[in-house]
Design a protein that fits this description.
The complex is a heterodimer of chains A (about 325) and B (about 220).
Chain A: E1 4-14, E2 19-30, E3 35-39, H1 46-53, E4 61-66, E5 69-70, H2 76-83, E6 86-90, H3 101-111, H4 116-130, H5 145-157, E7 163-167, H6 175-192, E8 195-200, H7 203-209, E9 212-217, E10 220-226, H8 227-232, H9 237-243, H10 245-251, E11 258-264, H11 272-280, E12 285-294, E13 297-305, H12 310-322, E14 326-330
Parallel strand pairs in A: 3-8, 3-9, 6-7, 7-8
Antiparallel strand pairs in A: 1-2, 1-4, 4-5, 9-10, 11-13, 11-14, 12-13
Chain B: H1 3-42, H2 51-66, H3 69-75, H4 77-84, H5 90-114, H6 118-126, H7 131-142, H8 144-164, H9 172-182, H10 187-215
Helix pairs in contact in B: 1-2, 1-5, 1-8, 1-9, 1-10, 2-5, 4-5, 5-8, 8-10, 9-10
Classes of the chains: A alpha/beta (about 325), B mainly alpha (about 220).
Chain lengths: ~325, ~220
């Protein structure tokens, strides 16, 4: 059974003049030990979705089931104690400004009703995990963004949660700090078996740490699966847009025939484009190329502009397909 | 006025003024704090929205705040007699002072509490904190600096009210200023009371600001 199950989840906000459907019939299963990325453009509804998982937002339809418990059926008290198993970290860290690092980590445990001596011991352990022992008496205003997020992670971990929800947790950080925070999350997932849900608008976050990904577009869950599957064969427009965002921006003005070729696993080490030129005498123009390392396997894609001659085009496509590559037509502007 | 008469008069005045100001501020906070918490909680965007209750409290606070202090003092004379036994003197003045200051204090506290970052409150909710825990462990401690600044401003305002009360039988420096300086044309007494009031106000302000700075942890060292 999945650890987190979202069934026909919907959320509608009623404003004075308009009704906004933030989430429409979302179905999603997240298993124990997954690092599940939920990605979408801003305004797609992903922040609302993650807040429905711990009922900070009450869905207007459907159900959220965590570890077999339907959240809608819980009493306020039972919901509060369940929230101790579902920690959350935020884009802006949300630390108590008037408490030092120790005090902030202790806070979650005070809420959980732990004894003072146990809290102190656990705070020491958590400081060790996030590497902030030497900063324990500093206040948030004296820490960098990355350090503050580490405090938030320590706070989130302190109550031994089953799940950690990350709402744009790295969006306010520079690339280097982002990498270190993501590494920490991956380590936590591996060592402690904690399921992690990551909300982000950055594809690179999903690539570097997630095992699974769901794509949210305009309140709909348009695609989900393992990161490898979704990244190598994106089906929906929204997924393609996110994965080939950069390429899409460049292609609008060109009307000539273009194809996208996808490399999976070993194929990305063959010099196919060079061979194409040498063996078939077809000069393809590389419009966009990107190779990514997804969970240890190499994935890449390229967008090629083919010569005007129809025969040459077919020859090139045939050749690439014979090399075991997937070839797709790219229509202008709609990557 | 001769100095040997002036000094004991002024010492009494200072003592009465400080007595009225501190006791009134204390009671105003005892009434104003729960009222402010209730306002913040029940507001449409609060943690426990009760729009009807909120609107009633909001209106009551506004009504009391819109009555000028001197008029309020006259209006509540029957209540003052009931509570203090008489309608004049320092102790009696505390009754209208509290009634005038409590809604003012409630507004000051309300605005301090609303300054707390909603993200921090959301984080506490995500950890399963109850509403009392959010109020006493998150909102009030996080608003501490702003609350101290507010208390400084509020006690300054109450000091001003207490001086005003001298016009219709209140005690302290205000009463001395009016009965000697205004009714008996003793300008020297008037001047000394004004200077003393300024000194008191400065002292409140300096001490309040010092405490708020000392306790604020947001400042980079």
């Amino acid at each position: 059974m999945a650890l987190i199950e979202l069934r026909h989840l919907s959320k509608t906000f009623k404003g004075k003049t308009q009704i906004v459907e933030a989430l429409k019939d979302i179905n999603l299963e997240i298993n124990q030990g997954d690092i599940y990325g939920i990605i979408g453009m801003s305004g797609a509804g992903k922040s609302t979705l993650v807040r429905c998982i711990n009922f900070l937002e009450k869905p207007t339809g459907g159900s959220v089931v965590i570890d077999g418990k339907d959240l809608a059926s819980l009493t306020p008290k039972a919901l509060r104690s369940l929230r101790q198993e579902v920690s959350m970290i935020f884009q802006h860290f949300n630390l108590l400004q008037q408490r030092d690092v120790r005090g902030n980590i202790a806070f979650a445990m005070e809420i959980a009703g732990m004894k003072k001596a146990d809290i102190d011991k656990r705070v020491d352990e958590m400081l060790e995990v996030v590497g902030l022992t030497d900063r324990q008496h500093n206040y948030p205003s004296q820490l960098s963004g990355g350090q503050q997020q580490r405090v938030a992670i320590a706070r989130a971990l302190s109550t031994n949660p089953k799940i950690i929800l990350c709402d744009e947790a790295t969006s306010a950080l520079d690339p280097q700090t982002t990498t270190s925070i993501l590494n920490l999350l991956r380590e936590i997932n591996k060592k402690m078996g904690i399921t992690i849900v990551i909300i982000t608008h950055e594809m690179s976050v999903v690539e570097s740490v997630c095992t699974h990904v769901a794509i949210i577009d305009n309140g709909d869950l348009v695609e989900n699966g393992t990161v490898e599957d979704v990244f190598s064969q994106p089906k929906s427009q929204a997924a393609k847009k996110l994965i080939f965002r950069k390429a899409g921006a460049d292609m609008g003005s060109l009307g000539e025939r273009m194809i996208r070729i996808v490399f999976e696993g070993s194929a990305s080490t063959d010099p196919v484009i060079a061979s194409l030129a040498m063996e078939c005498h077809v000069a393809a123009n590389i419009m966009y190329a990107d190779t990514r390392d997804v969970n240890g396997k190499a994935f890449g894609q390229m967008i090629l502009q083919l010569p005007e001659d129809k025969l040459q085009q077919e020859k090139a496509i045939y050749y690439l397909q014979s090399k075991g590559l997937r070839v797709e037509e790219v229509t202008s502007g709609g990557a | 006025m001769a100095l040997e008469k002036m000094i004991p008069l002024m010492l009494d005045g200072i003592r009465d003024t400080m007595y009225m100001t501190t006791v009134s501020t204390l009671f105003a906070y005892l009434l104003g704090l729960p009222l402010a918490i209730a306002l913040v909680l029940t507001s449409p965007k609060g943690l426990a929205p009760r729009p009807l209750i909120y609107r009633v409290m909001d209106a009551v606070v506004n009504i009391f705040r819109s009555i000028p202090f001197l008029i309020l003092m006259i209006l509540v004379i029957p209540l003052t007699r009931l509570i203090a036994g008489r309608a004049y003197g320092s102790t009696a003045t505390i009754v209208p002072l509290v009634i005038a200051a409590a809604p003012y204090v409630a507004r000051m506290i309300e605005s301090s509490l609303l300054e707390v970052d909603p993200g921090v409150i959301e984080a506490a909710q995500s950890m399963g904190a109850s509403i009392p825990e959010i109020i006493f462990k998150v909102i009030i401690p996080e608003a501490k600096t702003s609350l101290i600044v507010g208390a400084t401003i509020s006690s300054g305002t109450i000091l001003g009210y207490s001086a005003m009360s001298g016009a219709i039988g209140g005690g302290g420096l205000g009463q001395i200023a009016i009965s000697y300086g205004y009714n008996r044309y003793q300008t020297d007494v008037l001047l000394v009371t004004v200077i003393l009031l300024i000194v008191l106000m400065q002292a409140i302000q300096l001490i309040g600001m010092y405490i708020s700075r000392k306790t604020d942890k947001r400042v980079r060292e």
